[in-house]
Amino acid sequence: MFRKQMVAAVAVLASLLLSSAAHAEGHIRIAQQFGIGYLILDVVQDQKLIEKYGKQEGIDIKVEWNSISGATAMNEALLAGALDVVSAGLPPMLAIWDRTRGRQNVKAIASLGSMPNYLVSNNPKVKTIADLSDKDRIALPAAGVGFQSRTLQIETARLFGKADYKRFDSLSVSLAHPDATAALIAGGSEINTHFSSPPFQYQELENKNVHKILSSYDVLGGQATFNVLYTSQKFHDENPKTYKALYNALVEAAQFIRANKTKAADTFIRVQKSKLAPALVRRIVEDPEIYFTVSPERSYVYADKMHELGVLKNHAASWKDYFFEEAYAQPGS
To answer: What's the rounded Cα separation, in Å, for the pair 327 and 285?
Structure first.
């Protein structure tokens, strides 16, 4: 499964690179990943909100939607000019912001919502991360660099000291969420722990042998941004009307989800062609821990801690350093 997803991602990236000519105002190429964390984008696509706000700006916007798994492929396509706007977890976005500062100046457009990611295990001996040993293997999407891995590193540094923040990297295995979920539920494999995300953590916790060890909210001090949408300074500056239409579309989509949770859940199933039970999707969308908003929440915890650990060279003064100014109209942190 994971190998097929990687092959598919490479194929998509290759096709994008072949058609990477610059586009004028009124054309936008967006890529999203899979899962309910991208529900805001599903609503934008389903209701053609970018096109709607484009007309208000006096232009007809052509929107190209792409699906890519993994922040690395996203970032490569963005920097190559094959995509205009991409999405990923907050730590990978901060890494590319840090890497391109003073050059392409990649920054975030908006949050795609706040939701907890759970570290779960089927090993009854593991109650906290301090109980993890060489006998355990932790599955996560991008070992060492992804959202889940950076979150674990921050918590590890808090418990064991900055010098030992990579303590559990040697136990980590890069594995797509669906494959990790299947392994954890089935049991009997080396994968006995998974830093998961919605909807997978809900499926795993329905199994009596799986329990929660840690929530990303525990690490960050409360409700916090999971993933973001981001782009380059060039696209932002050269396409003001298209960018404004995009931002307004995201704001409306978030408002729609909060006011119409059942309809929003149905949108996810329809757009993603999801096989999940509608009742489960509705339960996730209605979970009080999950909040769909374009406003960044506790994002600066990552920016500050990743710099403290030496992962980021640049130290942001505030969340506004790595978000474009349109986001300043909303509250943020």
So the answer is: 24
| 8 A C-beta contact, residue 198 and residue 290 | yes
What is the pLDDT, as a whole number, of residue 24? 66
Distance between CA 229 and CA 124 in Å, rounded? 38
Strand ordering across the sheet containing 62-67:
62-67, 27-32, 85-89, 227-231, 107-111
pLDDT score at 35: 86
Could you read off the pLDDT of 156-212 as tens digits, one per residue? 999 999 999 999 999 999 998 889 999 999 999 999 999 999 999 999 999 999 999
Give the relative orientation of helices 71-80 and 2-18 as an angle to the nearest 10 degrees.
10
Helix crossing, 261-272 with 39-46: angle to 10°?
80
Encode pLDDT of 281-325 as tens digits.
Answer: 999 999 999 999 999 999 999 999 999 999 999 999 999 999 999
253 CB burial (10 A radius; 0-12, 13-18, 19+): buried
Contact yes or no for 13/72 (Cβ under 8 A): no
Beta partners for residue 225, in sequence order: 114
Tally of CA atoms within 13 A in the half-sphere of 22 that contains its CB: 7
Amino acid at 154: I
> What pLDDT shows up at residue 1?
43
Q: How far is CA 56 from CA 48, 52, 251, 255, 303, in A?
A: 13, 7, 15, 19, 36
Task: Give, in order, the Cα–Cα distances in Å from 145 to each of 140, 225, 245, 275.
Answer: 10, 17, 32, 29
